[in-house]
Amino acid sequence: MAAAAGALAGAAALVTLAVGAVGAACGAGDGPGGGDRSGSAAGAGGTVLSGGPRSGGAGPYDVARLSGAVDEPVAGEGVALRAYGRFAPPGSFVPSTALTYDRTLVPAGAWIVVEQSTERSGTVVRARVGGLRADHAFGAHVHTAPCDADPAGAGPHYQHKTAPGAYPANELWLDFATDAAGEGNAETRHDWGLRRGGAQSVVLHAEQGGAGARVACFTVPFGGYGTP
């Protein structure tokens, strides 16, 4: 029994070190990360990390959330999130939270990083992409539901106030244009916060504006305040 307990303690120490390394990479890395959504662990100060190795290309998901437990931020406390996905077709052998529906515009293996910071005074969402079709203008919006094999499964645009039309001031738009290397980035800022559970994905569209064919989707566990 003593030997078994010692072995378990040693394994726990190794896991703690591995999680710490992933957290450091999330905070300090210059490029996109990688990782399997294989589990989560809470560190000091309420830091919650989900993910596995950051290399090898097999990991579809990596997220670090700071200041508050996952899906339950403390009232008045900020939430910071960084999520990484590598696009794969629906039904791929290795499941991914980033799905491509049009591999001409969003090839399998292309990547996306989404970051969010939220206070009661406002919301900032940023996105970076790479490996997409070069020199193309993409539409991108935060949507209400997680990604699905059916592009329509991500639901409509997230709206601050329910409205019949799509307007950037009332939604989270991240339209961007890729450069010659197929990379791009965008940022949106608003003076309102997100409803808890109301925003769950980022959808890429074939063209900029309020509509356009859905060519890819990335499930993101956005944080927010208030009731769903």
Word description of this protein:
With 228 residues, this protein is mostly beta strands. Helices cover 12% and strands 30% of the residues. The strands form 2 sheets. The protein has a 7-stranded antiparallel beta sheet with strand order 1-2-3-4-6-7-10, with helices on one face. A hairpin with a 2-residue loop joins strand 6 and strand 7. The protein is globular and about 40 Å long.
Query: For the report, how would you describe the main beta sheet?
Result: 7 strands, antiparallel
Structural class: mainly beta
Per DSSP E runs of 2 or more residues, the count of β-strands stands at 12
Mean pLDDT: 73
State the helical fraction. Answer: 10-25%
Beta-strand content = 25-35%
- SSE pattern: HEEEEEEEEEEEE
What's the alpha carbon Rg, rounded to whole Å? 18 Å
Question: What keyword list fits this structure?
Answer:
228 residues, mainly beta, 7-stranded antiparallel sheet, 5-stranded antiparallel sheet, 1 helix, globular
